[in-house]
């Protein structure tokens, strides 16, 4: 059995393998909020509106409730286990190796695809004809930023977040000023009318897609080994980032539904741009394009960071190739894990269209958080605001949203999870045979 466990670093090597605690509440909150806003504001509203129709705000509220359950569970666990890896670590410690692996594999695969989606969205907003080369360049540059150390990552995230918030305020003002057109534009046609017919039955799959936008606070937990005073900092940062994102998403959902015809909102590829284009501030469209680019860069930066740290944690336990666990360089970063994530993202950008992976990523992240809630349920020492029934609600809510996602997304991610489970099973069998020999 000893051969199945990874060897631990010796005392004289230990300080070379550990990340350094440099992040406070403000930096941690900025990383989480930057992740959420970059994904949700410019990607999710249109497909969610197509499913939920006039009940888009209800879908946002449902996603927010489940996200709150997950955030509370994540905050409890991250304070108790302040190391890189997030729910992968929590699942292994509280539930066993297999639940931890499923959480980690779902996070790494889903969020790697999300990295590609954010990079390609950036390219489309800047220059659609050169979207893929620009996306590859963004991945290369931001990976270089991550390799300079986590404090540089946090600083750039704060700068990008400020630009995104300014863009959102501008869109909100433009939407409030109007004019507010009545009815759908002629170009929408009958097919657009069918796109918003989901209504009540579409609320749950729309909430599942909206959950993709709320998942950014996971990045705070995956950075637990680099947070100062994690018992105090991590819960505050997670709840602050989630609260800020919820207020922004709900406000934008209400404004977009009021300002744009439902058919146009449901079929738009850039609803925030459309909201400004039909307003009295239409001259500000380039400003919104720049803000969208900043949002995508901020999300991509935080995503690469989070996936790299989870890959580091899985490699430490030999659930991914052990060289990915190497930490080094002048800024003590998991450089091989970061480079591996960047390489896979670039491969996706060059080989496939990843703009349809929102549902794919949502499924993986919902499975990840179902493990989070199950792990948090086993904790005995609990603050007053984290009763066990909240973990039950979060666990069941995650599973319901996952299975009600568009079937193609759910089936693809289920197949990816199955491949990971089968691969780990075979590797463990081979290790047992070698140990017996």
Let me know the average pLDDT.
80
The CATH topology corresponds to: Amino acid/polyamine transporter I
CATH class assignment: Mainly Alpha
* Major β-sheet annotation: none
Instruction: Tell how many strands the DSSP assignment holds.
Output: 0
Distance between the termini: 13 Å
Number of helices: 19
Low-confidence stretches: 1-16, 183-197
Q: Give the helix level as a range of percent.
A: over 70%
**CATH homology-level superfamily:** Amino acid/polyamine transporter I
User: What's the overall geometry?
Assistant: globular
Q: H/E series, N to C?
A: HHHHHHHHHHHHHHHHHHH
Structural class: mainly alpha
What does this molecule look like?
With 437 residues, the chain is mainly alpha-helical. The protein has a single domain, classed as Amino acid/polyamine transporter I, CATH 1.20.1740.10. The protein has 19 helices and no strands. The chain has helices at residues 11-17, 25-43, 45-52, 56-80, 87-94, 97-126, 131-147, 150-177, 189-195, 203-214, 218-222, 230-259, 262-267, 271-277, 285-316, 335-351, 358-377, 388-403, 407-436. The longest helix has 32 residues, at 285-316. The relative contact order is 0.21. Mean pLDDT is 80; it is low at 1-16 and 183-197.
């Amino acid at each position: 059995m000893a051969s199945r466990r990874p060897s631990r670093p010796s005392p004289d090597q230990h300080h070379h393998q550990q990340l350094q605690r440099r992040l406070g509440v403000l930096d941690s909150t900025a990383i989480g909020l930057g992740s959420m806003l970059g994904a949700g504001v410019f990607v999710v509203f249109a497909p969610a509106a197509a499913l939920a129709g006039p009940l888009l705000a209800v879908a946002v509220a449902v996603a927010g409730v489940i996200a709150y359950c997950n955030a509370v569970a994540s905050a409890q666990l991250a304070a108790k286990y302040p190391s890189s890896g997030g729910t992968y670590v929590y699942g292994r410690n509280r539930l066993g190796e297999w639940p931890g692996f499923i959480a980690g594999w779902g996070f790494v695969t889903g969020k790697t695809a999300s990295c590609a989606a954010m990079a390609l969205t950036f390219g489309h907003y800047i220059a659609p004809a050169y979207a893929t080369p620009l996306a590859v360049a963004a991945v290369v540059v931001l990976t270089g930023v991550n390799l300079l150390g986590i404090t540089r990552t946090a600083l750039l995230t704060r700068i990008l977040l400020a630009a995104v918030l300014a863009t959102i305020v501008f869109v909100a003002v433009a939407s409030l000023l109007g004019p507010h057109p009545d009815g759908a534009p002629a170009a929408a046609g009958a097919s657009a009318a069918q796109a918003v017919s989901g209504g009540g039955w579409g609320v749950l799959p729309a909430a599942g897609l909206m959950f993709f936008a709320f998942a950014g606070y996971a990045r705070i937990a995956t950075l637990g080994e680099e947070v100062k005073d994690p018992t105090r900092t991590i819960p505050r940062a997670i709840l602050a980032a989630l609260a800020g994102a919820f207020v922004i998403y709900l406000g934008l959902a209400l404004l977009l539904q009021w300002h744009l015809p439902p058919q146009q909102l449901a079929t738009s590829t850039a609803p925030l741009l459309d909201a400004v284009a039909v307003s009295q501030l239409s001259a500000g469209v380039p400003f919104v394009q720049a803000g969208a680019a900043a949002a995508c860069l901020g999300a991509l930066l935080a995503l690469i960071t989070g996936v790299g740290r989870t890959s580091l944690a899985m490699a430490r336990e030999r659930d991914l190739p052990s060289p990915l666990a190497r930490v080094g360089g002048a800024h003590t970063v998991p450089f091989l894990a970061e480079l591996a994530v960047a390489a896979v993202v670039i491969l996706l950008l060059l080989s496939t269209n990843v703009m349809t992976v929102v549902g794919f990523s949502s499924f993986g992240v919902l499975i990840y958080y179902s493990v989070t809630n199950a792990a948090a349920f086993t904790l005995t020492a609990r603050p007053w605001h984290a009763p066990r029934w909240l973990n039950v609600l979060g666990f069941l809510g995650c599973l319901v949203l996952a299975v009600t996602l568009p079937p193609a997304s759910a089936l693809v991610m289920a197949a990816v999870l199955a491949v990971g489970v089968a691969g780990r099973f075979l590797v463990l069998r081979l290790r047992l045979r070698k140990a017996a020999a």
